[in-house]
Design a protein that fits this description.
The structure holds two protein chains of two kinds. By secondary structure, chain A is an alpha+beta fold. Chain A has a domain at about 30-145: Alpha-Beta Plaits. Helix content of chain A is about 20%, strand content about 15%. A three-stranded antiparallel β-sheet of chain A has the order 2-3-5. In chain A, strands 1-4 form a two-stranded antiparallel sheet. In chain B, helix 3 (about 80-100) packs parallel to helix 9 (about 230-255) and helix 7 (about 195-205) runs antiparallel to helix 9 (about 230-255). The N and C termini of chain B lie far apart (about 55 Å). Chain B contains eleven helices and no strands. Classes of the chains: A alpha+beta, B mainly alpha. The interface of A and B includes residues 4, 10, 11, 15 and 23 of A.
Chain lengths: ~170, ~325
């Protein structure tokens, strides 16, 4: 009986404690910077889009919600003609972000994507592509890759040495 | 007309209006208890209760009422239709009838029965019918099990509810509730009759099958017990009937043990409301802060602990009253 009274007293003292509820949407919860929320496609520091339509993200996706079609511009640089993510299927696991070789696809701390119609949750490239660099400010894939694309020959990349001429005997 | 004089007819009219007003006030209090309970439970559980619908969530009651009115009124095809429909009405009826003898102030009260306490005990006994009929007519094993357990709990705890009140009756010398309140003008009954107060409170809690004695409604344990098959307004009537029971037991405790409307300075009705309100909040605190005992623990506690204490209390009170009369 006494333990019951003690419990009642302890419960009553909760009157003077602060409530733990976060009054959404007036108060927002704290989201750390690496929170896996809405997916975006980022651009280079030079302004060109980073995505090279290699399909590594759609292969890595556990629920197959990414759909990419590749096309090439006149300088030989690959880019996605269509890039579609079905956000009603996406589980926000971040596998695509880990798989991407160019840091193009990134997950941002934003979760407010509620819709009334499921078709509205399929985001196209125009909805996903942002004008900034996202989480990796200095990275430009084509500057460090070995391919010869528009504006860069073989051997002109950062930290790359010139290709060896295999037809001469000189060291 | 009717062979009565004009003043007698006016008397009847005023009594009728007073009765209806008391009824409305009590039912509205029970409905507002929905909001009070949810907010108070939130206060004691470190969260907010309903706070979106209207200022401080006050219109939540209205929203709940609208929702429950629009629900489909489904009677299971395998159920006993007449009994199924009547069962929730019985609990509302008996609880509201019990309010007829409760004196709210020195002048307000429906009727002054000279056997008021007996009437209240009789009405609470009739309330057991609603539970049994609900469980039986549902034609559902779980509902029947829940109803049987509830009925056994209610019938057992009625015994010591009555016994604990005998001490109060001995002190006041009457079964009339108004005279009991007036006899407390010198000292509230809770002081000489403290064990009886505790037993009456616990037994009242079990009578209205309210936490921690709410095994009948324990969703986790009996799939909602005797009101498993009920939906819509019938379930609403069980629900409001339970809140009416809380209001009834709180009013009875203030009338029988805490001096009803007696108190300095403030008018009688304010004192009554304050005291009854305190006990209503205490019921909510009981729900927030206690664990549910197992069924056999519940019955053992009643029969093996509360009954002897109640009997001893009656014996000692009787002895003291006889000794003081000599």
């Amino acid at each position: 009986m006494l333990s019951v009274l003690r419990t009642l007293g302890m419960t009553f003292m909760h009157t003077f404690r602060k409530r733990e509820t976060i009054l959404y949407p007036e108060e927002q919860p704290y989201l750390p910077p690496r929170y896996r929320g809405r997916i975006v496609l980022t651009r280079d520091p030079d302004g060109a889009e980073r995505c090279v339509a290699c399909n590594l993200c759609s292969v890595a996706c556990p629920v197959d919600c990414i759909s990419v079609v590749k096309t090439e511009d006149e300088t030989g640089r690959w880019y996605p003609e269509t890039f579609r993510i079905n956000f009603s299927r996406c589980i926000y696991c971040g596998f695509c972000e880990e798989a991407c070789p160019t840091y193009a696809i990134q997950l941002t701390p934003d979760f407010e994507m509620g819709e009334f119609d499921r078709q509205q949750m399929v985001y196209e490239k125009t909805d996903l592509l942002i004008s900034g660099v996202g989480k990796r400010p200095g990275y430009n894939f084509y500057r460090v890759a070995g391919m010869a694309v528009g504006g860069k020959d073989k051997g002109d990349a950062v930290n790359e040495s010139q290709p060896i001429d295999v037809k001469t005997l000189l060291p | 007309m009717f062979g009565l004089s004009e003043s007698q007819l006016l008397d009847i009219l005023f009594t009728a209006i007073e009765t209806i007003a008391i009824l409305l006030a009590v039912v509205i209090t029970a409905a507002m208890l929905i909001w009070v309970e949810r907010r108070l439970l939130g206060v004691w559980q470190d969260r907010y209760g309903p706070n979106r619908v209207g200022p401080f969530g006050l219109l939540q009651v209205v929203a709940d009422m609208i929702k429950i009115f629009f629900k489909e009124d489904w009677i299971p095809p395998f159920a006993d239709k007449a009994v199924f429909v009547i069962a929730p009405g019985i609990i509302m009826f008996t609880t509201l009838m019990a309010f007829a003898v409760v004196p709210f102030t020195a002048t307000i009260g429906v009727v002054d029965l000279n056997i008021g306490i007996l009437f209240i005990l009789a009405m609470s006994s009739l309330g057991v019918y609603s539970v049994i009929l609900a469980g039986w007519s549902s034609d559902n094993k779980y509902a029947l099990l829940g109803a049987m357990r509830t009925a056994a709990q209610m019938i057992s705890y009625e015994v010591f509810m009555g016994l604990s009140l005998l001490g109060v009756v001995l002190l006041a010398g009457s079964f009339d509730l108004r005279e009991i309140v007036e006899s407390q003008a010198g000292m509230w009954n809770v002081i000489p009759q403290f064990p009886a107060f505790v037993i009456f409170f616990i037994a009242g809690c079990a009578e209205i099958h309210r936490s921690p004695f709410d095994l009948p409604e324990a969703e986790q344990e009996l799939t909602a017990g005797y009101h498993t098959e009920y939906s819509g307004m019938k379930f609403g009537m069980f629900f409001v009937g339970e809140y009416l029971g809380i209001v009834l037991i709180s009013c009875l405790v203030t009338v029988l043990f805490f001096g009803g409307w007696l108190g300095p300075i403030l008018p009688g009705f304010v004192w009554f409301a304050l005291k009854a309100g305190f006990f209503i909040c205490f019921f909510v605190l009981l729900r927030a802060g206690t664990v549910r005992p197992r069924y056999d623990q519940l019955m053992a506690f009643g029969w093996k602990i509360l009954l002897p204490i109640a009997l001893v209390n009656v014996a000692i009170t009787g002895a003291v009253v006889v000794a003081m009369a000599n």
